[in-house]
């Protein structure tokens, strides 16, 4: 598949949209961080709470995964009334308070301060849902979502470049390890022969038995199968990067397989030069695993 169609997306995202709707300046913000599942938190004006479930279902299909926060808020114009004053209740209390004050000859009374403390004297203005206003809010949500998707895609391009670089680093290490792996065979033969000659005279060494032991020992250290599987897993990883849908979980699984082969090569290395290369490949893989957690 041509690389221009890659679809790695970052789980980190941010989108914002603002507009004046009626007498209010509305802002919609959508942001996300990585998470194994979808954890969606919605904060919106209470007037439109009945819209929340449908909104959640719609967003769930779009954002797929991550710890996601959607916030919808507004700034009102100065002429918008926000509270209701219960005049009848306050007048009733005022009449009673004034009567008591006169009865006890208390003239210096701050009636307004007392009246403001009365429960239900002042209450928030009940807002009725406005379908036209909600349509405007929905457009803002859509704009914020599009900006959010663009952010995820751009961050995904950074991830894709990082993944490719790290996989190439592992493949380079895999190529470099061929030379010390081949040289190791001669080192092993020489070391085993020297050990035998220290224990037995040269003319007492059974060459056939010696050759059998060499073959057995080298087979235990052979990493050919691991090299083949590691190369295939790296190629599989790069193929997953080029798929038309983001494959974050798949990349995580493949990286585990890559780690398994690198660890086996390390356990069979028994050679300082090979171990040095293995450590380099492990370092590249750790960086891949860290970034895979942020791939959608």
Briefly note the structural class of the backbone: alpha+beta
Radius of gyration: 36 Å
Largest sheet: 4 strands, mixed
Q: Helical element count? A: 9
Helix content class: 55-70%
DSSP strand tally: 6
Mean pLDDT: 85
Q: In one word, what is the shape?
A: elongated
With strands numbered from the N-terminus, the spatial order across the biggest sheet is 1-2-4-3
Q: Could you tell me the strand content as a percent range?
A: 5-15%
* Total domain units: 3
The end-to-end span amounts to: 20 Å
Order of helical and strand elements: EEEHEEHHEHHHHHH
Low-confidence stretches: 1-5
Structure explained in plain terms:
The chain has 296 residues and is of the alpha+beta class. It has three domains: 3-79 and 131-152, 2-Layer Sandwich (Ribosomal Protein S5, domain 2), CATH 3.30.230; 83-124, no CATH class; 154-292, no CATH class. The protein is built from nine helices and six strands. It has helices spanning 52-63, 87-103, 111-116, 131-176, 178-199, 207-221, 224-241, 248-269, 272-292; strands spanning 13-21, 24-33, 38-43, 66-76, 83-85, 122-124. The strands form two sheets. Strands 1-2-4-3 form a four-stranded mixed beta sheet. It has a two-stranded antiparallel ribbon with strand order 5-6. β1 (13-21) and β2 (24-33) form a beta hairpin. α7 packs antiparallel against α8 (248-269) and α8 packs antiparallel against α9 (272-292). The radius of gyration is 36 Å and the shape is elongated.
